[in-house]
Description:
Layout: H1 3-14, E1 18-22, H2 28-34, E2 43-48, H3 52-59, H4 63-69, H5 74-86, E3 92-98, E4 112-119, E5 122-129, H6 135-156
Parallel strand pairs: 1-2, 1-3
Antiparallel strand pairs: 3-4, 4-5
Helix pairs in contact: 1-6
Amino acid sequence: MSLPVSVLEAAKARGVMIATAESCTGGMVAAALTDIPGSSAVVDRGMVTYTNAAKVEMLGVSPATLDAFGAVSEETAAEMATGALRHSHAQLAVSITGIAGPGGSDHKPEGRVCFAVAGPLGVKLQTVEFGAQGRANVRAAARDHALGLLLAALTRL
């Protein structure tokens, strides 16, 4: 069984709707889930918030958080996930913000991706250093990692 199918079946079994808030993956998690027939029983919505303005306007991320920690931070990821919950009918939300590349800096290198999962058990944060493996590979790895985080969160409910 594929990871997206496992996520959908776990969410369906628990009566949980999912929302996504994605930056560097540009909707790849939502696409992976909605590629599967019947996903509308579980997927409420997906928000692609690529710019800081979109993060503020669509998810309610605080400009002060963006100024203090930057878009690629666990603090911003947390506000993205909680904002996705506030702006949806979902009970579980995942957010992704990172540097897919090319580029990055010594402070925030290419391949760094911050995740948050928000739901009934609170907000879980995680930063993963995927490394400079190329934009497509970082984005695919981030998508798969986010799906794994959703599945793990669902198994705890």
